[in-house]
Task: inverse folding
């Protein structure tokens, strides 16, 4: 039986070739084989147009055009081929202010480096199982930054701020 | 389905835009992502990269030592080490690099000068951990914890909570 991912096209945007190899290997292991790679945001935009991926994994810190700028382009530029595409941002910058920046740029999921297969697969499962509504509000367009809470759930809530909505593992 | 919640916000529900996979394929995708067979395949794939990653980490360590007092360079290289040292089986080096990155990042954020001695201590600890024959967990944990405590104190002094 096939695993459901045979026709999925992915784009990896990462300036470190070792990390690109690791991510490719992990995607391969779930059956995703149609994978484009780019080493920075500008090349990624070109790949978006040419390859029309269904899923993007992007690094945050890159020279020329970083992951935040790339995400803003995808979500907001009139020439963006797919403003709704799921974007998993993979970053070692897990400090609160970086996480908030990523969320406000419009990323779908955040994944902390060093990566593990379990954490990457959990992010992809989240996109499949619980797709987020999109919000257009003021200068923001992207996934709803507040995840839906379970009906009737009254807490306890682990953290007081909006950051709780962005699960970084 | 699109909802206009108020004068400014528009909410576009998931069924109103194209999804990554169809609902029909979704269940199979979840089963794949959660299967033991795929987990083993992924683990094996990652393990096959360990030697290559160890070599890369050693190159980064040399670059770190050659960076001298170039803080921008040190931060960039330490970040690479922090990003995948654990994937290379060099968890201690990764933890110390993470501590160094956090220190430098927070000091920059509060616009306070970085203490070169703290940087040098971290660089030496990363190099020693990376060059250890095996990841010396016991010694590494002690050094990592001490540096972590030092950074926490210095960040507190700098007003970082």
Result:
């Amino acid at each position: 039986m096939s695993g459901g991912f045979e026709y999925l096209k992915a784009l990896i945007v990462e300036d470190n070739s070792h990390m690109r190899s690791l991510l490719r290997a992990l995607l391969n292991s779930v059956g995703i084989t149609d994978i484009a790679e780019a080493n920075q945001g500008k090349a990624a935009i070109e790949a978006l147009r040419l390859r029309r991926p269904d899923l993007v994994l992007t690094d945050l810190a890159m020279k020329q055009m970083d992951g935040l700028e790339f995400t803003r382009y995808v979500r907001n530029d009139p020439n963006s081929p797919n403003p709704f595409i799921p974007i998993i941002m993979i970053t070692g910058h897990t400090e609160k202010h970086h996480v908030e920046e990523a969320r406000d740029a419009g990323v779908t999921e955040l994944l902390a480096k060093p990566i593990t297969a379990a954490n990457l697969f959990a992010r992809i499962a989240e996109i499949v199982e619980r797709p987020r509504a999109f919000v257009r509000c003021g200068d923001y367009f992207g996934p709803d930054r507040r995840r839906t809470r379970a009906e009737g759930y009254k807490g306890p809530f682990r953290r007081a701020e909006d950051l709780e909505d962005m699960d970084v593992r | 389905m699109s909802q206009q919640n108020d004068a400014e916000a528009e909410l576009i529900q998931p069924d109103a835009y194209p999804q990554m996979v169809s609902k029909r394929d979704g269940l199979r995708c979840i089963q794949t992502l959660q299967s033991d067979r795929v987990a083993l395949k992924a683990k094996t794939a990652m393990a096959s990269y360990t030697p290559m990653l160890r070599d890369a980490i050693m190159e980064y360590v040399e670059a770190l030592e050659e960076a001298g007092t170039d803080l921008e360079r040190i931060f960039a290289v330490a970040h690479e080490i922090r990003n995948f040292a654990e994937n290379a089986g060099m968890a201690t080096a990764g933890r110390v690099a993470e501590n160094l990155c956090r220190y430098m990042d927070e000091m920059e954020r509060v616009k306070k000068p970085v203490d070169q001695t703290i940087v040098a201590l971290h660089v030496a600890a990363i190099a020693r951990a990376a060059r250890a024959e095996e990841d010396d967990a016991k010694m590494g944990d002690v050094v990592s914890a001490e540096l972590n405590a030092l950074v926490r104190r210095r960040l507190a002094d700098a007003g970082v909570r």
Notes: Residues 149-165 of chain A have pLDDT under 50 and may be disordered. The first strand of chain A starts at residue 9 and ends at 13. Strands of chain A lie at 9-13, 34-38, 55-59, 87-91, 109-112, 134-137, 140-143. The CA atoms of residues 50 and 155 of chain A lie 46 Å apart.
